[in-house]
Every structure is written in structure tokens, then in C-alpha cells.
TrEMBL record:
Organism: Caproicibacterium argilliputei
Keywords: Glycosyltransferase, Transferase
EC number: 2.4.-.-
Top enzyme category: transferase
Pfam families tied to this protein: Glycos_transf_2
Residues annotated as domain Glycosyltransferase 2-like: 5-126
Gene Ontology MF terms: glycosyltransferase activity
Matches recorded under InterPro entries: Glyco_trans_2-like (IPR001173), Nucleotide-diphossugar_trans (IPR029044), TPR-like_helical_dom_sf (IPR011990)
CDD domains in the record: Beta4Glucosyltransferase (cd02511)
Origin organism lineage: Bacteria, Bacillati, Bacillota, Clostridia, Eubacteriales
Protein's name according to its UniProt entry: Glycosyltransferase
Length: 369
């Protein structure tokens, strides 16, 4: 059986740290908490689970803090989590099983990260992260913000999921301020840095500036393919917000350069045409989204609903607007296969029943006349 060090960096996490640590109790052979300046009870809570609590001065650099936390590890493998992450019971069992069966030649294990959920608790947004790594490989964290662990060698993909259950929002503007400081001091951003800087600008509604850096990132041609695809979608959002419809459509179709069409981008194209009132073209893109096969080994962002539920619901609207109520109802029933208890599906069923009843009443009235 392999041994595991859990390494975490924390700051002011008294509301959620115990929940996280409880979820890995009995799995991690040692727990190492690196605190970057808490002013609440975070360290006291950490000491209820471990006596290995360290201080590290915050330097506006997540990678520096994570590398410092990894330096304290002594077990064969290192697992990292954030304080607002948890392992659900099924994933606890899977991780225990992996710990018992893991081949010592494995250098890194990719695990799913579940970060978006619908009202019923179903996962709607997920991607993969490098979660468990061999300590002897001395892998290094890169990037001051939106950091990643640079892994290589024998990397395997696991069905184990880490679930993100945040109880508080991130510090507003923190990441953007770090990027702005780097640039103000004459520093340069890596391709990944450009991508995430553009995302931070978009999220702060600086759409024109964001579009500039998304274009710079894409034109550079050095980004990870998954980031290039999502950059196209984000760039389209910026152009839509600026009222530049043609550039919005160009940004979305540009994503097809990097891989076969993704359902997320096809849905975005469907929404663009729907907003323009062209339900025929909108239906084309939603149908295409519904026909696509979900990539099996995609490590990038994946929005589950775009691969089934959303195109079905949007086709329901489109066909209803196109005067094809029977086809619209069929699409609503297809959506029900993905989410049987969905409120929107039930609402549509009521709508279609009422419509049929109204037609029947009109027909009876005509016959009586």
C-alpha cells in the first residue's frame, strides 16, 4: 500500500477546513497545513487534525506557497486539496482502493474536479486536475495565479472526483491585481498567464481589454488546446457584450480550428442565432450539439448539460417558434431523459397539454357552429 501526504495551503478557512480534513481522515498518512496569514481560527482547527501546521508569508504567488507546502511532505505520494474541497463517500472508497493498488511506477494521477451542479445536485461542470503525484519526482508548481503542477512521465486518469463546495467567495479582484502588478513591474505573462489574465478581465467586465488579450493568446499559438477552445468561447462573450456580432460568430467558429466541434461552442452559436431571432439557424447548431459524441479523455472544461439537456430544451423553444409543436414536444421529452424531474420540462409539458386542449376546444366550437 502506498503512503500519502496531504498538502494544503490555507488562509482564513475556519468555516470549511474541518469539513475538508474530515473527508480525507483515514486516507492521508500525514496532513501538512501551510498557513499564509490567517487571522481567524484556521490554524487552531488544523491542529485538531495534525500537529504539522506551518507558516509561510504570502507573496502574491500561489505556486510559491504550494511548493513550500510540498517541501514538508515525507510520504511516497502527495495529494493536494483546497479548503473548500471535499471527498464524497464514494470517492473516499475509490481513493482508498487506489492507494492499495497503485502501481509504484505511476508518477501522477489525474482526478476529476466537480465544480458546477444543478438544483438536483447533478454535476454540470467538471475538468481534470493533477491531484496525486509521486514525491520523488519533485514536480514543481508553476504560475503565480491559476497555478498548475507540471507533471510528466507515467500519468494516469482516474474516475476519482474531488468535489468543490465553497462556502465563501474568493477575494474580489485578487487575481486580477496580481496580474496587473506583474505587468506594471515589467514582467511578462506566459501563454497560460495571458489566457487567465484575459479571463479575469472578462469576469471584471473589461470586455474590450479582455478581447485584446484573448486575441493575443490565440494568435500566439502556444496555448494548451483546451484553453484555446475555451478562449474562443470567452472571446465571443466579450464581442457579444460589445455589440460586435460578426466577431462574436467568428470567435465561436474559430474554435473548430483546434478540434472537432464541442457541444459547448455549438450551443453558444445556437444562442447567438436565437438572440437574433433566427430560430432556423439556432436549431441547426443545437441539433449539431445534440449529435456530437462527448470526448472520452478531455482534461479541459466540460459542461455536461451542453451535451444533452440544453440542446434538447433549446430545440423545444426553436421548433415551437417555427410552428412545429409536435417536434418541439418530442424535444422536450428528450430533455426529460436527461432530467426527468426538471421544473422546465414539467412546465413545458403543461404548456403543450394546454395548447392541445385549446386546439381541441376550438375544433369542437367550430363543429358546433
Amino acid at each position: 500500500m502506498k503512503t500519502i501526504s496531504l498538502c494544503m495551503i490555507v488562509k482564513n478557512e475556519e468555516a470549511q477546513l474541518a469539513r475538508c480534513l474530515s473527508s480525507v481522515r483515514g486516507i492521508a498518512d500525514e496532513i501538512l497545513i501551510t498557513d499564509t496569514g490567517s487571522t481567524d481560527a484556521t490554524k487552531e482547527i488544523a491542529r485538531q487534525f495534525t500537529d504539522k501546521v506551518f507558516d509561510f508569508p504570502w507573496e502574491d504567488d500561489f505556486s510559491k506557497a504550494r511548493n513550500a507546502s510540498f517541501a514538508h511532505a515525507s510520504m511516497e505520494y502527495i495529494l493536494w486539496l483546497d479548503a473548500d474541497d471535499v471527498l464524497l463517500e464514494d470517492d473516499r472508497k475509490k481513493l482508498k482502493a487506489l492507494k492499495e493498488s497503485l502501481d509504484g511506477t505511476v508518477d501522477a494521477v489525474m482526478m476529476q474536479y466537480h465544480t458546477g451542479f444543478d438544483a438536483a445536485g447533478n454535476v454540470t461542470f467538471r475538468y481534470y486536475r493533477e491531484r496525486l503525484v509521486k514525491r520523488a519526482r519533485h514536480f514543481v508548481w508553476k504560475e503565480p495565479v491559476h497555478e498548475y503542477l507540471e507533471v510528466y512521465g507515467k500519468v494516469i486518469q482516474s474516475a476519482i472526483a474531488v468535489t468543490h463546495q465553497k462556502l465563501k467567495s474568493a477575494v474580489p479582484g485578487r487575481n486580477l491585481a496580481i496580474y496587473e502588478r506583474i505587468l506594471a513591474e515589467g514582467g511578462a505573462l506566459s501563454p497560460r498567464g495571458l489566457y487567465y489574465y484575459a479571463r479575469e478581465l472578462k469576469d471584471s467586465r473589461q470586455y474590450e481589454k479582455s478581447a485584446h488579450f484573448f486575441e493575443q493568446f490565440l494568435d500566439g499559438g502556444k496555448g494548451w488546446v483546451e484553453d484555446q477552445i475555451t478562449a474562443c468561447e470567452s472571446l465571443a462573450v466579450c464581442y457579444a457584450q460589445m455589440g460586435q456580432r460578426e466577431k462574436q460568430l467568428q470567435a465561436l467558429t474559430r474554435s473548430f480550428v483546434y478540434d472537432t466541434p464541442r457541444a459547448e461552442l455549438c450551443c453558444a452559436l445556437g444562442y447567438a442565432w436565437k438572440a437574433a431571432g433566427d430560430y432556423q439557424k439556432a436549431a441547426f447548431w443545437f441539433r449539431l450539439a445534440l449529435s456530437l459524441q462527448k470526448p472520452k479523455n478531455c482534461w479541459g472544461f466540460l459542461r455536461e448539460d451542453c451535451w444533452g439537456y440544453i440542446p434538447c430544451m433549446e430545440l423545444t423553444v426553436c421548433y415551437d417558434q417555427l410552428g412545429m409543436p409536435d417536434t418541439a414536444e418530442q424535444c422536450n421529452e428528450l430533455a426529460a431523459q436527461f432530467k426527468p424531474d426538471d421544473a422546465a420540462v414539467q412546465y413545458n409539458r403543461t404548456y403543450f397539454r394546454a395548447r392541445k386542449q385549446a386546439q381541441a376546444d376550438d375544433s369542437t366550437a367550430v363543429q358546433k357552429a
